[in-house]
Task: structure prediction
Amino acid sequence: MMGCDQKMGCDPTEFPKTWVRGSEGLYMVNGPPHFAENTAFPRDSGKSSKVFAFSKNGSLFGWCNGEQINIVNVISNDLLHSFDLPKTLSLEFSPLSNVLATWQPYTTAKDGTAGVPNLQLFDVKTGKCLKSFIQKKMQNWCPCWSDDERICARSVNNELHFFENNDFSIIVNKLHLQKVTDFVLSPGEPPTKVAVYVPGSKGAPSFVRLYQYPNFGGPQSALANKSFFKADKVTMLWNSKATAVLVIASTEVDKTGASYYGEQTLHYIATNGESAVVQLAKNGPIYDATWNPNSTEFCVVYGFMPAKATIFNLKCDPVFDFGTGPHNAAYYSPQGHILVLAGFGNLSGQLDVWDIKNYKLISKPQASDSTYFAWCPDGEHIVTATCSPRLRVGNGYKIWHYSGSVLYKYEVPQNAELWQVAWQPFLDGVFPAKTATYHAVPSNVPNDEPKATQAYRPPALRNKPVTSSKLHEDEPPQNMRPSSKSSDKPLSKTALKNQRKHEAKKVAKQEARVEGNQEVVPAPPVQNVLHHAVPSVTSGDPEVDKKIKNLKKKLKAIEQLKDQAATGKQLEKNQLEKIQKEAALLKELEDLELGV
Result:
């Protein structure tokens, strides 16, 4: 039987498995193509399973079943350790699986004296408790390790305490910043860098600083510093190469009243000292920002619905704009070659799957009522789930191929609940990227996702042509990379519309035929047919002249409507009906002018 090496990770021939936790217990499901429950791992059928966690390389699995914490080897399923901590609500392994961190709610004694430490750090090899701390809040409860585990840090009363080589008996270094509320260690190889956030107070701005451990001499020793107002909290995201950080700064309340979700800004900070505010092309909330695993670009989903999604490079220049759509999240595949734009929560669950190398849309599956989404480490499969307590109805999960096929579906029985689903992790690089496929892979599982419903139409309109009427104008995808002939600066939205309008007129003029001094107007639906100049000759009859003038006025209005349609604007029903009358109006005008 194959095993797992804690440093190398699991054997790549073993397909990642799915672990499921709910009222039916905790169990393991094999990956494609079988999807059967893996009986080598005995199901923990209790209903008190509270939490589970994997080691980073997928070799170890730990969970609390309401009685104790258990740690097993994932391949051999050998039980390594059990800890008597029945109230544990959070678990996490250190990056090299040497330490298991556990957290349970902090409680004080009945007489008001301090309670016992509730944050425990265990040596995974020996099962010995290395250190215990009092950690009252669940938020940011877990210490942070560098990937090589040479450094471990935790926040304590406006200070960051640093330990080295998992020796928690000595605080080797401290970083003191007044009211520091958050920090993130950089991933990857040493030297380790630290991003810290200090909120503003008494008119002073908030700021994020980047330090290289252990150079904490003050602002002058920082690698980079970025200050900003309008920040009640921040989210800091390192790229995988630890060369830059994205900072989403958020306020709880938008004082302008424009957004219920408060106000967000996105900042870019590089370890070389460069920083910038990422300029977004649409007003509104920032729903998501995520790095491509290749560390050379990032995707942002933003703006009032329908939201925009844009990829930016390391200069914060837009590279590709996906247009607008029902999106509030973005997920790169582990290999960075595919991007999923999703709309969850109060949105319909539409998934737009894009080939990032060629910027082509692969599929648009519908994952309605999903509360969870995750890429499989192989970059080929996806899991979506509807979990309780977020949604207590219709709990279950689906495993998809990114081409849109549902390969496996499980719905929990009535009165049962699904709480958590997760892929077994593998180390980066175990599964190389494959060329994207645009054809749905075969599947025996029917996709019963509901199709998009049509808008209600009154009986009087049901036998008439369908016209589109939208509150918002959808924007199509646009490659923002400048061509060799264009300038380095991408076109603005207004310039882009004017360019489309100009091109539409140019095409229409080329299609028009000229015979002598009089143009013969092509039959509809050719664009912009009214470009001929009629000599200003009067008939001598005021009534006829008035009719000719009115007809020209109507045809000019039709020309303007066609110009609007050429730029992509959705016309109203009565406007479309006007365009349909163009041929009759041209014939009437011709008859009147022939009689002049």
Observations:
- The CA atoms of residues 143 and 154 lie 5 Å apart.
- The mean pLDDT is 82.
- The longest strand covers residues 244-251.
